[in-house]
Write a structure and sequence with these properties.
With 133 residues, the protein is an all-alpha fold. The chain contains 8 helices and no strands. The chain starts with a helix and ends with a helix.
């Protein structure tokens, strides 16, 4: 039991998703499949209909169950993963923000900056400068 709990805790820390049994939530295989799709297609638009179909649920039920399981909407979960990916690129490269935005699936640099600032509390350029100092 302790090993399973440790694995679940480590998974929650790396993905931001806690696998907890919640009535009306996603089954473990459904959340794993959703995470896999969203992670593999981080820089692409993925529709709720596609995710719901992969989980064999209606769109409305999938959206409710995802939020009940993770505490976030699928869109918010995806934005947070994109910001984490942007942080990794900001630290490891000197790419311009517009290229980082495209690589992470944001519509443009402005979209990256807006979402990054909401989640992190600072814009990506300022965050990069602070990190490099």
């Amino acid at each position: 039991m302790r090993i399973a709990t440790g694995h679940a805790d480590a998974h929650a820390q790396t993905t931001g998703v806690e696998h907890r049994s919640t009535r009306g939530g996603l089954a473990p295989w459904q959340i794993r499949r959703t995470e896999q799709i969203l992670t593999e297609r981080l820089n692409e638009a993925v529709s709720l209909a596609y995710l719901a179909g992969e989980c064999r649920l209606s769109v409305a039920h999938f959206a409710r169950a995802f939020k009940r399981t993770t505490g976030q909407t699928p869109h918010r979960w995806l934005l947070e993963r994109r910001v984490e990916h942007a942080k990794r690129i900001l630290v490891t490269s000197a790419l311009p923000l517009a290229e980082i935005a495209a690589a992470c699936g944001f519509a443009d640099q402005s979209h990256l900056t807006r979402v990054f600032s909401q989640i992190v509390g600072a814009g990506p350029g300022a965050w990069r400068r602070t990190w490099k100092e």
